[in-house]
Amino acid sequence: MNMLKTKANGKLSFSDFYEKYGVLIVFILEMLLFSFLSPVFFSFKNILNVLRQIAITGILATGMTFVCITGGIDLSVGAIIALVTCLSAGTLVKTGSIALAFLVGLGAGLGLGLLNGIGVAYGKMPPFVMTLGTTSIASGLAFIYSQGLPIMIKGPFLKFGNGSIFNIPFPVIYFIVILFAGHFLLKHTVFGRYVYSIGSNQEATRLSGVNVRLSKMMVYVISGVLAAFAGLIYTSQLGIGTSIAGQGYELNAIAAVFVGGASVTGGSGTMWGTFLGAIIIGALGNIMNLNAVNPFIQTFLTGIIIIVSVLVRKKK
């Protein structure tokens, strides 16, 4: 597990300081800057809008945090969203059963997450290669099932992603509940300690008697199931199943995790850091929308943010 290190003179290096406090400082500075750039940025309505916009990314990033702490990565979450939107929408159209649509969607995410986990943990495939392959599988299945055509849905299922309680959108509530559950699992369970230990030193963890393969497999299962849940929200919000859904979501999820303080080599990361990372990226898109800036610039800036956040934490 990454512990805070100091130089020989007892002073913190910049990378050490950033690792501990950086994401919080960036978050505060961004909030202050954006409050000057738009007078409505801190309005209750806009804050809820930012949270609603980052809900799907945040749910994906919650699962991605588990994967990244072990030193892995999951590129397939966006494609899983696409497959789940097609399967759940198609099930609703054919059967009218919301429960069955949920089961089919979550089952697809679980199956693909399990495939990733088996490939990485038991097949010893590099996570990048394994999840890239799964991306093609999920995307191909989505196109085959939908024949490249959108699947329109209507009815009560639409409330799942568009409803609210006390003016708080359901997706925001889902995200917060999942975030707390992820935090509890990481910080207060034996499994969470195994996840950190694997990322810090996999061989030492194995020699201590931990079933490393099972734990590594489980983090990909968690990521796959949460991606499927995000796909169900996506389907409900837009009222459509489409094979092009979820494109780019994996980038934002990965960015949220790394901006939030996770190490690219594993062993460090927190759910609250991921939460702040998701807000930092989501608020960036929001302020550009409020100021009528080309939204495609966000993708460019997200890439810059990822590179900088990793470089400043890089140890000499």
Between the first and last Cα atoms, what is the distance in angstroms? 19 Å
At the first level of CATH, the class is Mainly Alpha
CATH topology: ABC transporter involved in vitamin B12 uptake, BtuC
The global form is: globular
Please give the number of β-strands. 4
User: For the residues shown, what is the average pLDDT?
Assistant: 88
Taking all Cα atoms into account, the compactness measure Rg is 20 Å
Could you walk me through the main structural features you see in this protein, from its secondary elements to its overall organization?
With 316 residues, the chain is mostly helical. The chain has a single domain (43-314), classed as Orthogonal Bundle (ABC transporter involved in vitamin B12 uptake, BtuC), CATH 1.10.3470. Helix content is 72%, strand content 3%. Helix 11 (249-259) runs parallel beside helix 13 (296-311).
Helix/strand layout:
Elements: H1 14-37, H2 44-69, H3 77-95, H4 98-122, H5 127-146, E1 151-152, H6 158-162, E2 164-165, E3 168-169, H7 170-187, H8 190-200, H9 202-207, H10 212-238, E4 240-241, H11 249-259, H12 271-290, H13 296-311
Antiparallel strand pairs: 1-4, 2-3
Helix pairs in contact: 1-12, 2-7, 2-8, 2-10, 2-11, 2-12, 3-4, 3-5, 3-10, 4-5, 4-10, 7-8, 8-10, 11-12, 11-13
Features:
316 residues, two-stranded antiparallel ribbon, ABC transporter involved in vitamin B12 uptake, BtuC, 13 helices, disordered N terminus, single chain, mainly alpha
